[in-house]
Design goal:
Elements lengths: L15 H18 L5 H8 L4 H28 L8 H16 L12 H33 L3 H29 L1 E7 H4 L4 H10 L3 E7 L1 H25 L12 H6 L2 H10 L1 H30 L7 H8 L1 H6 L3 H8 L1 H21 L6 H40 L4 H29 L12 H29 L4 H18 L1
Antiparallel strand pairs: 1-2
Helix pairs in contact: 1-5, 1-6, 1-9, 3-5, 3-18, 4-5, 4-9, 5-17, 5-18, 6-13, 6-15, 6-17, 12-17, 12-18, 12-19, 13-17, 16-17, 16-19, 17-18, 17-20
Length: 500
Amino acid sequence: MSNNTAPAKAHRRFGILDSISYAAGDFGCNMSFALKGTLVIFWTQFMGMDSYVYSALLILVQVWDAINDPLIGSIVDADKHQYRRGKFLTYIWVGSIGLLVAGALCFLPFPQLSGVVKNILFVAGYIIWDAFYTVANVPYGSLLSLISSDPADRASLSAWRSVGSMVGNMVPMIILPMIIYQNTIKDLETMQGITNEGAASRAVYNLSSVVSQDIIGERVFLAALIMGVLGFISFQFMIRTTVIRCDEYVKCNEEERQKFNVLKAMGNFIKNRPAVGATLAAMGMFLGMQGAASAVTVMFQSYFHNVSISGIVSMFSMIPIIAFTPLARKMVVKFGKKELATVGSVLSVTACVLMLVLPITPDGTGIAMYVVCQLLNSLGMGIYSTVSWSMMGDAIDYNEWKFGTREEGTVYALHSFFRKLAQGIGPSLALVIMGTLGYVGKYGGYQLPEVALNMRYLVAALYLVSAVFQFIGLAIVYNLDKKTLAKMNEELEARHTAQN
């Protein structure tokens, strides 16, 4: 797609409203996406689905999820219809309508159903939710490169998108653990009928009953409905206040139109080093965030025995991101995006190593150590996340610079494709590892003490793998440093001027 600023229509000057509007879009996305980390606990503990069955089904739906993204992206790129709102905002509007209720379909609270029916409900609910989420999210991600072509404006949009994402995550992250879990007394003699571990725990630890912090499925379903409404309102605000200053339609003759195909776009993506590097870093981030999410919940349930504060602890870990966001624009101008993000990844690796080796005990001192490590990890991840979307905008420009075509929808969709794979592989692989370490979903919030200890180390290991992936993607693969980016922008500007 051409990135020429359309001269036929005057637009307001880029300002804070553009940034807030773009942030509102990711807030809307995260009102639907934030509950995804609860899926494992809901389906394995409340619905009673076998952990390995859940892992297999999650991989299945995530593969479809990943395939679905480039398909939608190519449809958006190839769509030449002149919509009143513009095609990107129109697709987002359609997706926002479906997301009103689609998220709740993933949390239908019927634990008494048979295993086969539960499997069908999970797959069907997830696919319906994912279809609407993709229709909204893929065009939304592509908008960043169309709202403004100025690198500083894009850095601002990327930073504010991170703000929208953080707020969209923080609201459910803090509130939900306080309302969707409750303490229940479990009789270990009864638990002998579930697995042999119940009997082992009763014999070894001389216990007759335990207090378990269990999830309440009906409350999760209601929360998903409320969040769907909030997300819809946020999307509508964004749609009504967004100004697209760059041309969102491909200007090509009929011969070029016929040459467009997804396979060629995929080939360009693979040769696009900035897109591949940013995607690898994003995959690492999601392997940590999504893969560790269920292990973190189980850790707070069974190791720290205080799942209700898990959201507050997570909130503290976001403080460095919030503190860095106002500085992002100036620091990008001074140091460069790749340079800043690489430093952040090094900090994350250091923090995760400390999380793994420090004596984090199941008490207040241990929680304090965990919080400090997460603060450092969050700062490193936050430096990257505030510029990550801007880096993808630059990768789209790189595609035009090297191959002569922009393909916003396809490039972003393929980026989303691999992110989605990480989002599926991460939790599935983590759950399989949890199972090998002794996790039993039917126990709910109670796990054997040695299993709880395993969760503490698994969480640190998953975060460390995540940080290493980010470092490789940003420091080694991504090649648009400050100097190269300036050269690319100058040459593209000259090319656009010559075309006009």
